[in-house]
Amino acid sequence: MKTRDIVFLAIMAAAVTLVGFLTIPLVLAIPIPGVRSVPAALFYGLFLALGALKVRRIGSILAIAALNGLVLLMMSWIMFLNNVIAALIVELIVWLLFRGYQKERAILLGAGLYAPLTIPANLLVAIFIGGEYLGQLLATPWLVALMLLAAGVLGFAGAFLGLRIGKELNKAGILKTA
Predict the structure, then answer these.
(1) Does residue 160 form part of some domain?
(2) 15: closest CA among 42, 43, 39, 37?
(3) DSSP string, 10-39
(4) pLDDT, tens digit, 9 for 90 and up, residues 20-52
(5) Residue 128, in any domain of the structure
(6) Which residue segment(s) compose the domain that 19 sits in?
(7) Which long-range contacts (CB under 8 A, 24 or more apart) does 62-66 make?
């Protein structure tokens, strides 16, 4: 991986972090499990798609999520784990189905799945640490399913937009994609 690819992924991670800091506080007071994944899902999909479009290698989405997670680690190790677990699942799915991000469908799938997969990743972490959040997740499965659906729709819409914007930026010579 070239230095400029790493820098580009770091810029996408900074964008994801900024979007999270701007959108997630809007829903912090809402006691619905998984709701924090919804407002940022569109933007996560968009920036992850741009990152995977530019750096078409397995691990590009994980790199963005891990860099974002490192910032979140200063606040909570749980948020770091949620990001990394979701990204690892995404990378595994993309690798199993496509062996990389050479196809647009792989980028769309990887970028679109990330936001909704943070919800089950949160469940995995909650299983290990217990607490009231696990009880909320298990007590209201229909709300969790609704949040998964909302995050999925917005995540895939953002990934689609990211692909379209990336193509236009490539045509304009602004973003060199493979």
Answers:
(1) yes
(2) 43
(3) HHHHHHHHHHHHHHGGGGTT---TTGGGHH
(4) 999 988 888 888 888 889 999 999 999 999 999
(5) yes
(6) 3-27+34-171
(7) 62/87, 62/88, 62/90, 62/91, 63/6, 63/9, 63/13, 64/9, 64/12, 64/13, 64/16, 65/13, 65/16, 65/114, 66/13
Whole-model pTM over 0.90: yes
Residue type, 159: A
Q: What angle do CA 68, 146, 106 make, to 5 degrees?
A: 50
Domain-embedded: residue 97: yes
How many folded domains does the chain comprise?
1
The number of residues making up the chain comes to 178
Over residues 63-76, the mean pLDDT reads: 94
Could you give the CA distance from residue 1 to residue 57 in angstroms, rounded to a whole number? 9
Positive or negative, the CA dihedral 175, 96, 109, 37 is negative
Nearest 10 degrees: Cα torsion 120, 39, 158, 109: 0
Can you give the CATH number for the domain in which 129 is found? 1.10.1760
How far are the Cα atoms of 96, 114, 120, 136, 160 from residue 51, in angstroms, in the given order?
A: 20, 13, 23, 34, 13
Determine the 3-state secondary structure of 177 from DSSP: coil
In the chain, what is the straight-line distance between the N-terminal and C-terminal CA atoms, in Å? 13
- Asked if residue 178 belongs to a domain, the reply is no
